[in-house]
From TrEMBL, chain A:
Name of the protein described by the UniProt record: Thiamine transporter substrate binding subunit
Database matches in PROSITE patterns: PROKAR_LIPOPROTEIN
Signal peptide bounds: none
UniProt entry tagged with the keyword Signal: yes
MF annotations from Gene Ontology: thiamine binding
Record-linked PANTHER family: ABC TRANSPORTER SUBSTRATE-BINDING PROTEIN (PTHR30006:SF2), THIAMINE-BINDING PERIPLASMIC PROTEIN-RELATED (PTHR30006)
Organism from which the protein derives: Halolamina pelagica
From TrEMBL, chain B:
Biological process, per Gene Ontology: transmembrane transport
GO CC entries: plasma membrane
Keyword Membrane belongs to the record: yes
Family: Belongs to the binding-protein-dependent transport system permease family.
Main location: membrane
Protein name: Molybdate/tungstate transport system permease protein WtpB
Any Pfam family hit: BPD_transp_1
Residues in ABC transmembrane type-1 domain copies: 98-301, 388-582
Gene this protein is translated from: wtpB_5
Membrane-traversing stretches: 12-32, 102-124, 136-157, 234-260, 280-302, 333-354, 392-413, 425-447, 453-477, 512-532, 564-582
Topology with respect to the bilayer: Multi-pass membrane protein
Subcellular location: Cell inner membrane; Cell membrane
UniProtKB/TrEMBL annotation, chain C:
Catalytic activity, EC: 7.3.2.6
GO cellular component: ATP-binding cassette (ABC) transporter complex
Cited Gene3D superfamilies: 2.40.50.100, P-loop containing nucleotide triphosphate hydrolases
Protein name: Molybdate/tungstate import ATP-binding protein WtpC
Task performed by this protein: Part of the ABC transporter complex WtpABC involved in molybdate/tungstate import. Responsible for energy coupling to the transport system.
Primary gene name: malK_7
Length: 375, 591, 369
C-alpha cells in the first residue's frame, strides 16, 4: 500500500507538470476502483453532487436554468452541485461504462426515452447504467404527469417536457396564399412544395422524434412511403436542429420541425409572431420527454435522491420550466399566464414509451436513412 | 563546451524523431487504431467479412457492387439520354455512397482549382496595394466553422440571399442553388480554393522569368510559353492543393448536410450516424475504406511529386500593376475579382451583417451578449475571452509543435532512405482519417484512459488539445516544406556538414532559410487548423475550461443565430489578425 | 595535414557494387588525383574519405587513426563540389565564415581576418559582401574553395570542381588550385574524369575503372609505364595491340598480332577476315622491347604504342594505315586510320598527301602491359 501511495503522489506530481494527464491505480482484477463519486473530490465536510446534463440546460445563449438550480440547491443543502455536460450527452456515460471506466457522475438530468432504450440495449447481462428510485422519498411524486412517465422500471422520473411541432412563417405562406399546414398529408401537397426543413434524425433528437411521430401516424409499414412523398415534395433534411432552424430563420423555407415553445423565444427578442406560428399536425404534438435518473454506481444515492426530490417541487418545476423554456413534469406547478399563452398545447399527445422503442430504433432509423440517402 | 553543444546537437534530430513518433502514437495511432481495429475484429477474431460486405453492398459501392454480382448491369444500365435534339446512349450507373462521395469531391476539386488558380495568378503576378494583406488573409475561410459557412452561404445564395436579390433587381430569374450539388461544391471551393491559390502563388513566385523568356525567344506566344513552360513548374503545387482539396471534400460532412441535406449524403455522414448508434464496428469499416482510398491517392501523388523536383528559381518575373489601362488581362482579372467577392467575401460579410442585425434592424445586442457573458458567466459556462485566449494559446502551441514535427517529416520524406515515400504517405494519415473517428478514439483512449500496469492513464485538458491540434496540423507543414526541401542541391547540405555542422545545424542554418516561404505557408495553415478544429477539441475540453472559439460558437447557437454570428465575427477578426502577424514575422526572415 | 589510408574500402548500393575493396595511401601534403570515366567509383571513394557515405566494408584512416565511424562534421575535411554548392541565402563572406562557427580560425586570427585572408588567397579581395548569384561560375568556385579552406582542414577534397567551367577558366582555376595547394601544403584529393587535368596537377594519381584501382603512380609513371590496357588507352591516346609471343631474344619479343591477334580485346578490333588482309598488307609480327615483362614463347601479350611513336621513318615494325580523319591541332596533325581492322591513331608534323601511309615504330617505344 505504501508503494502505491507513493506512486500515486508521484503520479499527481507528474500530472501537475503536464497538466491534464493523470494516472490512477485500478483494482487488482483490472477493473476500475470502487467508485469514488467524483473525480474532483470533496471539500472538507461538504459533499459534491455531480450532475450530468445536456449543454443548453446549463449554458444556452438565451436562457438556461443551470445556474439558478445550483444556487437554490446549494442554499438548501449542505452540498456542492457540480454540473457536467459532456459532448455526446448520455452516450458519454454509456461509453465509459462499456469501456469499464467509472461513470464518476451521480445522476443525469435530461434523459429521453430513446436515451434510456439505447443505454439498456448497449449493456450486457441486464446491467443498467441507472438504478430505480423509491418514489416514496420524492416529495411531489404523486403529481408527476402520467403521460410523461416512460420507464416501466421506475428508474427515470420525468423532469420536463416539450412538444415537437411545426414552426411556420405565415408571412411566407401568405405569398403562396395558404394558411399553416394542419395535417401530415398537407405537407405532401403542391401548396407546401419546398416548404419544410427537417433536422436529420440521425443527428438530432428533434428529427428523431419527428420520425417516431410519422411512424405513429403511418405505422411501420407506411412511414417510409410517407417520407418518400415528403421528400418528393421538396422537404429537406438538414444536419441538425441548428442548421434547420438557421435556414428557416433566413427564409429558406416557410416551415421547420421544431418545438411548440418557439414563441417564448420569439417574445424575448420582440420578433414578428407571424414568423413563429406553431403547427400541431393532425391536432397532435409529439411529447419530447426528459427525465432524471440516478447512475447505478453513485456513492451518494441519498444526495442524488434529494436532488430529484428538489427538482420536482412545484415552485422549482415552475421556475425551471420557464428558464428552460419547457413544460413542467408535475401538474401542480404554477406558471405565469403569459408563459401558458406562449406555449400552446396539442389536443392529443403522442409519444412512444420505453417498450414501444425498445429494440426498434436502430431498425427504423436504418431503413429510413438508406431510403433517403439512396444514390 | 563546444563538445557538449555538439553532442546535444547531434542528439537533437533523433530525439525529435522519437518525440514525434511518441506524440503521433499517443494522440493518433493508438486512439484511432483501437477504434479501427473493430473493422477487422469480430469477437476477438480477425475477419475481413465486414469489409467484404460493405464492398459488395450497392448502397455503398453502386454499380461496382452490382457488377460483382451480375456484370450484365454494366451494359443494361446504358440508357438513352438527351441534350436538346440529340439523343445519345449514356450509362445510368448507380454511384453508391462511396461513388457519390468521390464524385462530389472531384467536382469540388475542379471548382477549387478553377477558383484558386486565377487567385494565384493575381497574387503572384500583379502588384497592388494590400496585396500582402490579402495574401495573408487567404487562410481565413479555412477556420470558418461549417455552421457559420452554412449561414453565410444561405445569406448569399439562398432564396432571399444577396445573389438572388441582385438578380431579381435587374429582372433576372432567381437561381435555386441551396440543397443542390452545386452549392456543396461551391462551399468546398470556399474552403479550399484559397488553399490552392496560396500554395500555387508561392510556387509561381519562384518560377524563373528566364524560362518563360527563353520560350518566348524561341517563338512561343505568351499563352504557349505559359502552357509549355510556366504551367509545368506550377503543376506540383497545384496538384498538392488538389490532393488536399479532394481528401478534405471526400471527408466532408457537416457542410454537406447543412447545405445539401441528407439526399446528398457522403460516407462521412454514414460514419457519424454509425458512431451515434454506437455501432463502432460499422463505422470503423467505412472509415478504414475511406482511409485506404485517401492514402492510396496520397501515395500515388507523392510518387509523382518525387519526379517533379525542380531547381529553385533565381529570378522571378516582375509583377504587373493591377491598376492601369484595361487590356484583356486586366478585364479577366477584374471579372475574377467580382466572382471572388461573391464567393469568398459575401458569405463572410453577410455573417458580419447578421451579427449586427436583429428583428428590428441594426443592433449591438449580440455583442452586448458576448460582453455580458464575459462579465457574468458561471464557472461551467463559456466565457468569450477565455475562448479567444485559449484559441490563440493553442494555435501558438500547435505551431510550436507542428512546425518542428512537419519539418522533421519533410526531411525524412525527402531523403533517399528506403520507405521514405511510405513514411511520407503515413504522415498524411491525420488528413485521411475521419474526424469523427479520431474524436471517438481520443474519447475512449485518452479521456476514459488506458490501463497499463494497473494504472489508468488519462489525458485531457489544454495539453491534450494542443497536442491533438498539432497532430492534425503538421501534415500541412510537411506538404508545404517537403517539395521545396527536395529542390535543395544535396551538395549544399554536404558542404555544410564537411565544414563541421551537425545534421541539425545544417537544417537550421542552411535548409530552413531556403525553404522559409514554405515553412511560413505551412505554419499559417497549421495555425488555421488549430483555430478551426472542433471535433477533437470539444471532446478533450469537455467539462473543463479548455474550450476554444469554435466550441463557443457552437454553444451560442440558439433559436436566434445572433450570438453565434457575433462570436463567429470575433473568430474571423482574431484569426485574420493572427495571419497578418504570422506572415509579417515570416517576412522578416526567409529569402 | 594528414596522411590518408584506405584499406579494403568497399561500397555496395542496393543493386550494384560501386567500389570493390579499394586500398590507397595519400601522403601528407600530397596532391593526389582520382581519375577515371564516370561511374568508375572515384566520387564514391572521395565520399568515403569525406565521411559523406559510409563504406560497406573496409577502413579509412587519417594519420593512422581509424575515422570510419567519425561523422563527417568531425573529420576536419574541406570539400569543393562540382556545383559550387554555395549557400544561396548567405553573402560570400558569410559562406566563407560558416565553417568558423564550429572551429576556431588558425593562428589566432579572428574570423573576419581569416575570411579576408582566404578571399585574398583565391583572388577575390573585397568581394565579401556580394551575394553568390552575383558572381560568375569561376568566382563562385573560388568562394567554395575559400569556404572549404577557412577552417584549415586536414584534408581538401575536390570533386570535379571545374567540370562546369569553360576551358579557359578551367586552366586558370587549375593553376590557382595548384598554387594554393602548394602554398598551404594541404593533403588534397582531387577527383576528375579529365586525364589531361590529372596529369597536369597531380603529385600522384590513381586511375580507377569499374569500382577498382587500375594503377597508382606519378603522372610520368602512369603515362609512360601504363600497367593495364585500360590505363594505356585512358591516360593519353594509345594504339593497343595484342598477340602471341612467337620468339624471345633477350629483351626483345616477337609478337604475332596478325592471325588470331585480337579476339575482342578493347581497342584492337579484328576485321572481317584479318588473316589474309593482314598478311597481304603488312607485317604480322612486331618486335617489341620486353621491359619488365616475363613473357615466354606462346604467351599472350598486349602492348601499346603512343601515336607520336608511329612515324614513316623507322625501319621496323612497318604497316600500312588507311587514313580516315585528319585533325589539325596547331603545329601537329592527328590522324585516325585503320589497319587490319584496328583503329590506329597517329600524330605527324604534317598530313601526308596520300590516303594511305606506311608507318613503323622502334621496338623500344612499345610498352608491354
Amino acid at each position: 500500500m505504501k508503494r502505491r501511495a507513493y506512486l500515486r503522489t508521484a503520479g499527481v506530481g507528474a500530472a501537475a507538470l503536464i497538466a491534464g494527464c493523470s494516472a490512477e491505480p485500478t483494482g487488482e482484477d483490472g477493473s476500475t476502483d470502487t467508485p469514488t463519486g467524483t473525480t474532483t473530490g470533496t471539500t472538507e465536510g461538504t459533499p459534491t453532487l455531480r450532475v450530468g446534463t445536456y449543454t443548453s440546460f446549463i449554458d444556452a445563449p438565451s436562457t438556461s436554468p443551470g445556474a439558478w438550480v445550483k444556487e437554490q440547491f446549494e442554499a438548501e443543502h449542505d452540498a456542492t452541485l457540480e454540473w457536467f455536460a459532456p459532448d455526446g450527452g448520455i452516450d458519454y456515460f454509456l461509453q465509459r461504462r462499456n469501456q469499464g471506466v467509472t461513470v464518476d457522475t451521480d445522476l443525469y438530468a435530461g434523459l429521453t426515452p430513446e436515451n434510456m432504450v439505447r443505454a439498456d440495449d448497449n449493456l450486457q447481462n441486464g446491467d443498467s447504467l441507472f438504478d430505480s428510485v423509491d418514489t416514496g422519498n420524492i416529495d411531489n411524486a404523486d403529481h408527476l404527469i402520467d403521460e410523461y412517465q416512460f420507464d416501466p422500471q421506475g428508474r427515470a422520473l420525468p423532469m420536463g417536457a416539450a412538444y415537437i411541432s411545426l414552426v411556420y412563417n405565415q408571412n411566407m405562406l401568405d405569398e403562396r396564399g395558404v394558411s399553416g399546414p394542419e395535417t401530415f398529408e398537407d405537407l405532401t401537397t403542391e401548396e407546401y412544395r419546398d416548404a419544410l426543413l427537417i433536422p436529420n434524425p440521425q443527428n438530432s433528437e428533434t428529427g428523431l422524434e419527428f420520425l417516431f411521430w410519422t411512424i405513429n401516424e403511418y405505422g411501420e409499414d407506411g412511414y417510409l412511403d410517407y417520407w418518400q412523398r415528403l421528400l418528393d415534395n421538396g422537404a429537406r433534411i438538414l444536419e441538425g436542429w441548428g442548421a434547420a432552424y438557421g435556414a428557416y430563420s433566413e427564409g429558406e423555407a416557410p416551415a421547420v420541425v421544431s418545438y411548440s415553445t418557439d414563441q417564448v423565444f420569439a417574445d424575448m427578442s420582440d420578433a414578428d409572431m407571424a414568423e413563429h406560428q406553431i403547427g400541431f399536425l393532425n391536432g397532435e404534438g409529439y411529447a419530447y420527454l426528459e427525465a432524471m435518473a440516478r447512475f447505478s454506481d453513485t456513492d451518494k444515492p441519498d444526495l442524488a435522491e434529494s436532488f430529484i426530490s428538489f427538482m420536482l417541487r412545484p415552485e422549482i418545476q415552475a421556475e425551471v420550466a420557464q428558464r428552460n423554456v419547457a413544460l413542467p413534469a408535475v401538474d401542480n406547478a404554477e406558471l405565469p399566464e403569459k408563459f401558458d399563452e406562449l406555449t400552446p398545447e396539442p389536443e392529443t399527445v403522442v409519444s412512444f414509451d420505453y417498450d414501444r422503442l425498445s429494440g426498434n430504433v436502430d431498425d427504423w432509423l436504418g431503413e429510413w436513412s438508406r431510403q433517403v440517402a439512396e444514390q | 563546451m563546444t563538445a557538449i553543444r555538439r553532442r546535444l546537437e547531434a542528439a537533437t534530430l533523433p530525439v525529435a524523431a522519437l518525440s514525434t513518433l511518441a506524440l503521433l502514437t499517443l494522440l493518433f495511432y493508438y486512439p484511432v487504431g483501437r477504434v479501427l481495429s473493430e473493422a477487422i475484429l469480430r469477437e476477438g477474431r480477425l475477419t475481413l467479412e465486414p469489409l467484404r460486405s460493405v464492398l459488395a453492398d450497392p448502397f455503398f459501392f453502386g454499380v461496382l457492387a452490382q457488377a460483382a454480382e451480375d456484370p450484365s448491369v454494366l451494359w443494361t444500365a446504358i440508357e438513352p439520354h438527351r441534350i436538346g435534339p440529340i439523343t445519345y446512349p449514356f450509362p445510368n450507373y448507380k454511384l453508391g455512397l462511396f461513388g457519390f462521395t468521390a464524385y462530389q469531391a472531384l467536382l469540388s476539386t475542379i471548382a477549387s482549382i478553377a477558383l484558386g488558380l486565377p487567385g494565384a495568378y493575381v497574387l503572384a503576378r500583379f502588384e497592388f496595394p494590400g496585396r500582402k494583406t490579402i495574401r495573408s488573409l487567404t487562410a481565413v475561410p479555412f477556420v470558418m466553422p461549417s455552421i457559420m459557412v452554412a449561414i453565410g452561404f444561405i445569406a448569399t445564395f439562398g432564396r432571399n440571399g444577396v445573389l438572388n436579390t441582385a438578380l431579381t433587381a435587374v429582372g433576372l430569374p432567381r437561381i435555386e442553388l441551396l440543397y443542390t450539388l452545386p452549392i456543396i461544391v461551391l462551399a468546398h471551393a470556399f474552403y479550399d480554393a484559397p488553399l490552392i491559390a496560396r500554395v500555387t502563388a508561392t510556387a509561381w513566385e519562384s518560377v524563373d522569368a528566364g524560362t518563360a523568356e527563353t520560350a518566348r525567344s524561341l517563338g512561343a506566344s505568351p499563352r504557349r510559353a505559359f502552357v509549355d513552360v510556366v504551367f509545368p513548374q506550377l503543376l506540383p503545387a497545384i496538384l498538392t492543393g488538389a490532393l488536399l482539396t479532394f481528401i478534405f471534400s471526400f471527408m466532408s460532412f457537416a457542410i454537406v448536410l447543412a447545405l445539401g441535406g441528407l439526399r446528398l449524403a457522403t460516407v462521412e455522414v454514414w460514419v457519424y450516424h454509425r458512431v451515434n448508434q454506437l455501432d463502432y464496428g460499422g463505422a470503423s469499416t467505412l472509415v478504414t475504406l475511406e482511409m485506404l482510398f485517401s492514402l492510396v491517392l496520397t501515395y500515388a501523388y507523392l510518387q509523382y511529386e518525387a519526379r517533379q523536383r525542380a531547381e529553385s528559381a533565381a529570378r522571378p518575373a516582375p509583377r504587373k500593376p493591377l491598376f492601369g489601362p484595361l487590356n484583356t488581362d486586366r478585364v479577366a482579372v477584374w471579372a475574377y475579382v467580382a466572382v471572388a467577392l461573391v464567393v469568398f467575401v459575401t458569405p463572410m460579410a453577410s455573417m458580419l451583417l447578421a451579427s449586427v442585425t436583429g428583428p428590428n434592424g441594426f443592433t449591438l445586442a449580440n455583442y452586448e451578449f458576448l460582453v455580458s457573458r464575459q462579465l457574468s458567466a458561471e464557472a461551467f459556462q463559456i466565457k468569450p475571452l477565455t475562448a479567444i485566449s485559449n484559441s490563440l494559446l493553442y494555435g501558438a502551441g500547435s505551431l510550436a509543435i507542428a512546425v518542428p514535427m512537419g519539418v522533421l517529416l519533410a526531411v525524412v520524406s525527402t531523403r533517399d532512405v528506403p520507405g521514405s515515400k511510405l513514411i511520407d504517405t503515413l504522415s498524411m494519415a491525420p488528413f485521411a482519417v475521419s474526424g469523427v473517428v479520431v474524436g471517438l478514439g481520443l474519447l475512449q483512449g485518452l479521456v476514459f484512459g488506458t490501463t497499463v500496469f494497473g494504472y489508468r492513464f488519462t489525458v485531457t485538458g489544454a495539453v491534450a488539445v494542443v497536442a491533438a491540434h498539432a497532430v492534425g496540423a503538421y501534415p500541412f507543414v510537411t506538404r508545404n516544406v517537403a517539395p521545396l526541401l527536395a529542390t535543395i542541391d544535396r551538395s549544399v547540405v554536404e558542404s555544410a556538414r564537411t565544414l563541421g555542422a551537425s545534421r541539425f545545424r545544417v537544417l537550421l542554418d542552411i535548409e530552413l532559410p531556403q525553404v522559409f516561404a514554405g515553412v511560413v505557408a505551412g505554419a499559417a495553415f497549421a495555425f488555421a487548423i488549430s483555430i478551426g478544429e472542433f471535433d477533437s477539441t470539444v471532446i478533450l475540453a469537455s467539462g473543463s475550461s479548455a474550450y476554444t472559439m469554435p466550441v463557443a460558437i457552437e454553444r451560442f447557437i440558439g433559436r436566434r443565430l445572433g450570438p453565434a454570428t457575433a462570436m463567429g465575427c470575433v473568430l474571423l477578426v482574431v484569426t485574420a489578425a493572427s495571419f497578418l502577424v504570422i506572415d509579417r514575422l515570416g517576412e522578416g526572415r526567409g529569402m | 595535414m594528414a596522411r590518408i589510408e584506405l584499406d579494403g574500402v568497399r561500397k555496395t548500393f542496393a543493386d550494384a557494387v560501386a567500389l570493390e575493396a579499394v586500398s590507397l595511401t595519400v601522403e601528407e601534403g600530397e596532391f593526389f588525383t582520382l581519375v577515371g570515366p564516370s561511374g568508375c567509383g572515384k566520387t564514391t571513394t572521395l565520399r568515403a574519405i569525406a565521411g559523406l557515405s559510409s563504406p560497406t566494408a573496409g577502413t579509412v584512416r587519417f594519420d593512422g587513426e581509424d575515422v570510419s565511424d567519425t561523422p563527417v562534421e568531425d573529420r576536419n575535411v574541406g570539400v569543393v563540389f562540382q556545383s559550387y554548392a554555395l549557400f544561396p541565402h548567405m553573402t560570400v563572406a558569410e559562406n566563407v565564415r560558416y565553417g568558423l562557427r564550429f572551429t576556431d580560425p588558425p593562428r589566432g586570427l579572428t574570423a573576419d581576418e581569416r575570411v579576408d585572408e582566404l578571399l585574398d588567397l583565391v583572388d577575390l579581395p573585397g568581394m565579401g559582401d556580394r551575394e553568390p548569384d552575383e558572381l560568375s561560375g569561376g568566382q563562385q568556385q573560388r568562394v567554395a574553395l575559400a569556404r572549404a579552406l577557412a577552417p584549415a582542414p586536414d584534408v581538401l577534397l575536390l570533386d570535379e570542381p571545374m567540370s562546369a567551367l569553360d576551358a579557359r577558366l578551367r586552366e586558370q582555376l587549375r593553376r590557382a588550385i595548384k598554387r594554393i595547394q602548394q602554398e598551404l601544403d594541404v593533403t588534397t584529393v582531387y577527383v576528375t574524369h579529365d586525364q589531361e587535368e590529372a596529369l597536369a596537377v597531380s603529385d600522384r594519381l590513381a586511375v580507377m575503372h569499374d569500382g577498382g584501382v587500375e594503377q597508382v603512380g606519378t603522372p610520368v609513371e602512369v603515362y609512360e609505364r601504363p600497367e593495364t590496357e585500360f590505363v594505356a588507352s585512358f591516360v593519353g591516346e594509345n594504339n593497343v595491340f595484342s598477340g602471341v609471343v612467337a620468339d624471345r631474344d633477350g629483351d626483345e619479343l616477337a609478337v604475332d598480332v596478325g592471325v588470331t591477334g585480337a579476339d575482342g580485346d578493347g581497342a584492337a578490333t579484328p576485321g572481317a577476315n584479318p588473316t589474309s588482309d593482314a598478311a597481304a598488307s603488312g607485317e604480322e609480327t612486331f618486335r617489341v622491347a620486353a621491359g619488365d615483362a616475363a613473357a615466354a614463347v606462346g604467351d599472350r601479350v598486349t602492348f601499346c604504342v603512343r601515336p607520336a611513336a608511329l612515324s614513316p621513318d623507322p625501319g621496323h615494325n612497318r604497316f600500312p594505315v588507311a587514313l580516315e580523319t585528319t585533325e589539325y591541332l596547331g603545329g601537329i596533325t592527328r590522324l585516325y586510320g585503320e589497319w587490319a581492322g584496328r583503329e590506329i591513331v597517329l600524330r605527324l608534323p604534317e598530313p601526308p598527301a596520300d590516303d594511305t601511309i606506311t608507318v613503323g615504330f622502334d621496338p623500344a617505344d612499345a610498352i608491354v602491359l
